[in-house]
């Protein structure tokens, strides 16, 4: 049975930036669960991971707005844990309902996941990860002055707070996750790339103020649970070169060497497609026979059958255009 790690992008949880109520996000999770069900029904062993950028940023703002001496605001790592619990709860309910409706005797369970990072990671000095809502430039400059936060313009969509985003090094709960998956459970884990922690000298862990990139977290998770496939679901069906230019061309089958060359030529936007491409390269190159796929939520199942999406594999693995990734 093939093991697939599925990374859910922003549109799998929140249909638009204005749809941030619990009800709207739960509805989005229900639609996502319908797509996941098709993959589960086909016999794949499924591990689900997800982003948390909008959600963790909103939790931080809620914490700050209500903070008093008796109800202190929680730090960013704890807000990350809250976002994993909240999104995991929505996904569990949605996945369990679609499994029950289909008569499949399985359940989903969320593992609150800590991801080890390097305290010396240069990312701590150069915040890049956008979280929370979008602001106008004027609003962003006012908040920067008042709170000392850093804001950046996010891909032409508005200004967002940015926080450090160190690279994932290890996942503390990897053995638990592997065991649950191997026993046939649907595991939701490493949400938001995992709660960033550093390893103390005595072997215990301490949370740090950062948010890991969920695509890089998904690649590390896929490596550590020994997955066969990393499936990254986002808002586009295929990765393109010359994106949004008249000569745009969509990639279907690509080797890691080719994709790395396109990456070096600057075809993939930082903060959106670039981390996905980096994640697929890391995973597909980590062991022969591993395949990574980037596609839309709706095309996820077809992509596993070789009928959609961009499929990435290491050089020399002999992947053909229509080769299905049978379970
Ligand atoms: N070269 C590219 N090919 C395809 N999409 C690209 C490319 N560069 C940037 N994008 C954009 O990246 C988006 C995916 O990034 P993002 O929205 O951050 O992902 P997520 O689904 O994880 O929230 C796509 O919807 C697309 O608009
Ligand atoms: N943690 C993370 O990368 O979340 P988003 O994908 O929602 O930005």
Describe the structure in brief:
Residues 2-293 form the Aspartate/glutamate/uridylate kinase domain. The protein has helices spanning 10-13, 22-41, 53-65, 76-101, 137-147, 174-182, 214-224, 256-264, 273-284, 300-304; strands spanning 3-8, 45-50, 108-111, 114-116, 129-135, 151-153, 159-163, 170-171, 186-189, 195-199, 205-207, 229-234, 240-241, 249-250, 253-255, 291-296, 310-313. With 327 residues, the chain is of the alpha/beta class.
What do you see in this structure?
- It contains ten helices and 17 strands.
- It has 327 residues and is an alpha/beta fold.
- The chain has one domain (3-67, 76-113, 169-194, 212-313): Carbamate kinase (3-Layer(aba) Sandwich).
- β6 and β7 form a beta hairpin.
- The longest helix has 26 residues, at 76-101.
- The protein starts with a strand and ends in a 14-residue tail after the last strand.
- The relative contact order is 0.16.
- Adenosine-5'-diphosphate binds at residues 9-11, 51, 234-236, 239-240, 243, 267-269, 272-273.
Key structural traits:
327 residues, Carbamate kinase, 8-stranded mixed beta sheet, 4-stranded mixed beta sheet, 22% strand, binds phosphoric acid mono(formamide)ester, AceGlu_kinase-like_sf, kinase, transferase
In total, the number of strands is 17
User: What is the terminal-to-terminal distance?
Assistant: 5 Å
Low-confidence stretches: 316-323
User: What Rg is obtained from the alpha carbons, in whole angstroms?
Assistant: 19 Å
* Count of separate DSSP helical elements: 10
Please provide the ordered H/E string of secondary-structure elements.
EHHEHHEEEHEEEHEEEHEEEEHHEHE
Supply the CATH class: Alpha Beta
The largest sheet has its strands arranged as: 3-9-2-1-12-16-17-15
- Structural domain count: 1
Portion in helices: 25-40%
CATH level 3 topology? Carbamate kinase
The mean pLDDT is: 95
Morphology: globular
CATH superfamily: Acetylglutamate kinase-like
Small-molecule binders here are: adenosine-5'-diphosphate, phosphoric acid mono(formamide)ester
- CATH architectural category: 3-Layer(aba) Sandwich
Strand content of the residues, in percent? 15-25%
């Amino acid at each position: 049975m093939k093991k697939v790690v599925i990374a859910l992008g922003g549109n799998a949880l929140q249909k638009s930036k204005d749809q941030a109520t619990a009800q709207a996000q739960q509805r989005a999770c229900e639609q996502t669960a319908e797509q996941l069900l098709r993959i589960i029904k086909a016999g794949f062993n499924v591990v689900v991971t997800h982003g948390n950028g909008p959600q963790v940023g909103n939790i931080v703002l809620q914490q700050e707005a209500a903070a008093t001496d008796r109800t202190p605001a929680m730090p960013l790592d704890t807000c990350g844990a809250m976002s994993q619990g909240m999104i995991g709860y929505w996904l569990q309910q949605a996945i369990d309902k679609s499994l029950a409706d289909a008569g499949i005797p399985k359940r989903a369970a969320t593992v609150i996941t800590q991801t080890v990072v390097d305290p010396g990671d240069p990312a701590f000095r150069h915040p890049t990860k956008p979280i929370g809502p979008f602001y106008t430039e004027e609003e962003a400059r006012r908040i920067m002055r008042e709170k000392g936060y850093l804001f950046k313009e996010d891909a032409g969509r508005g200004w967002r707070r940015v926080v450090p985003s160190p690279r994932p090094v290890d996942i503390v709960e990897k053995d638990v996750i592997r065991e649950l998956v191997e026993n046939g459970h649907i595991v939701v884990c490493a949400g938001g790339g995992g709660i960033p922690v550093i390893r103390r000298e005595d072997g215990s862990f301490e949370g740090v103020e950062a948010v890991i990139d969920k695509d890089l977290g998904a690649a590390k998770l896929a490596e550590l649970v020994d997955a066969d496939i990393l499936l990254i679901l986002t808002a586009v069906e295929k990765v393109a070169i010359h994106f949004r230019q008249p000569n745009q061309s969509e990639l279907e089958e690509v080797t890691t060497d080719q994709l790395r060359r396109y990456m070096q030529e600057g075809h993939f936007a930082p903060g959106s497609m670039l981390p996905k491409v980096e994640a697929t390269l890391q995973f597909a190159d980590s062991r022969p026979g591993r395949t990574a796929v980037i596609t839309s939520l709706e095309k996820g199942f077809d992509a596993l059958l070789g009928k959609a999406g961009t499929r990435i594999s290491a050089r020399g693995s002999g992947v053909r255009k229509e080769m299905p990734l049978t379970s």
